Amino acid sequence: MANWPVGKLLFSMGIPAVFSMLIQAMYNIVDSIYISRYSADAMFAIGLVFPLQMVGFSIAMGTAVGVSTLVSRRLGERRNDEANAVASTGVILALLHMLINIFLGIFVSKPFLSIFTQRPEVIELGYQYLFIVLVISFGQFFSLLFERLLQAQGNMIFPMFAQLIGAVTNIVLDPIFIFGRFGIPAMGIAGAAIATVGGQILSGIFITVVALKGKHDVKLQFKGLKMEAQRLKDIYTVALPSAIMNMIGSLTTTLMNNVLVRFSEDAVTSLSIYFKLQSFVFMPVFGFNQGALPILSYNYGARNKERYKKTVTIFLTTACGFMLVGTLLFRFVPDIMLSFFEMSDQLKVIAETTLRVIAIHFIPAACSITLITVFQSFGQGFTSMVQSVLRQIGFLIPAAYVLANFGLDYVWYAYPIAEILVVVIFVPLALRSYHHAFAEE
């Protein structure tokens, strides 16, 4: 973390994460393809459950990001004992936070679905899926936490294998449980949920064993551990905003679905398909984000200005490159990307327009993700949260409601409008934070 050339370090940490993220994106696509071939109602239900499912993921990811970011900073400051205490505290927090997921799965799922549809068959399909993925979420919590802890120490290989195990398990189990194979009865959408948690559990077991048994800079030490207020504050300074940012994404999708359902169920399904396909573009960027964040946090802790600046430059350039490729694919060959899904001609027309228009915001989104990574590395989780809130609640949703008055095709333009406004506002703030952080140097 301290001595390797920055480019070599970032790519050595980022490429394994990118590879595993692409496998995860492949899973997302395969999962939706199978469900689209199971029934149109199931595909519609998946579009409706996505926001609440993301709430559960946000809680797990927020905890992992907050803990791992602080661990990287403490290692950069050469405070290894405190890094151990932070990691151990993170395990306890993950256990406590799982209770929230269980509550959501049992008590919130059906009321949430009834907001968008009164069709009992769709509500039941959505409830079957949500109940399983939220209540049985321990695999997700531990896989995300220990993956991030290893990444905070510069280890990207084992997290890559953990994500591969989860995604491949998911892909293999999907057709078996959805349609029924090898003597196992067809379980439909519930089978898809079982395949999901099955992959998470295997991934969690693997990465937990690696984290506990291997030789690492950070070790879990629960004996004599105290839940110190300052440590919790430092963790949640990043963890809570990170979780809220993802939850805001869930709220945004919920509100967007509320706009789209007024046009048709196909409009909701179209947005759901977009989210599955865009993961091929965004997942590589998030993979490099996983490599960049611990490097930035470490060099901020070590007060190494030049390495910090170079990491940001390489990360931003790489992210824009991925997004440019995605823009070209979504704009010019959306029909090829949609050909894997079973859909009506009407849905295909809507989906092609969705992909072409929303793709305009990909390159600004690369800048936005870079800004969030910078703010998180400085421990400025609140600023990154404000950025996300403004983008999605302050700009995206109001723009969508206004543009809906002109027709469905115009609604999609809310995405590039929101992203561009956020970049214009927060680039100066990021530069100010950078100069302030390294002012002494």
Description:
With 441 residues, this protein is mostly helical. The protein has one domain (6-437). Helices cover 83% and strands 0% of the residues. It is built from 16 helices and no strands. The two termini are 20 Å apart.
Q: What descriptors fit this protein?
A:
mainly alpha, 441 residues
**Approximate helicity band:** over 70%
Instruction: Write the element-wise H/E pattern from the N-terminal end onward.
Output: HHHHHHHHHHHHHHHH
Given as residue ranges, the uncertain stretches (5+ residues, pLDDT < 50) are none
Euclidean distance between termini CA atoms: 20 Å
Largest sheet: none
Mean of residue pLDDT values? 85
Beta strand %: under 5%
Helix and strand arrangement:
Blueprint: H1 6-38, H2 40-76, H3 80-113, H4 120-135, H5 138-152, H6 157-180, H7 189-213, H8 229-260, H9 265-301, H10 305-332, H11 334-338, H12 345-358, H13 362-377, H14 381-403, H15 408-411, H16 414-437
Helix pairs in contact: 1-2, 1-6, 1-9, 2-3, 2-4, 2-5, 2-8, 2-9, 3-4, 3-5, 4-7, 5-6, 5-7, 6-7, 8-14, 9-10, 9-12, 9-13, 10-12, 10-13, 13-14, 13-16, 14-16
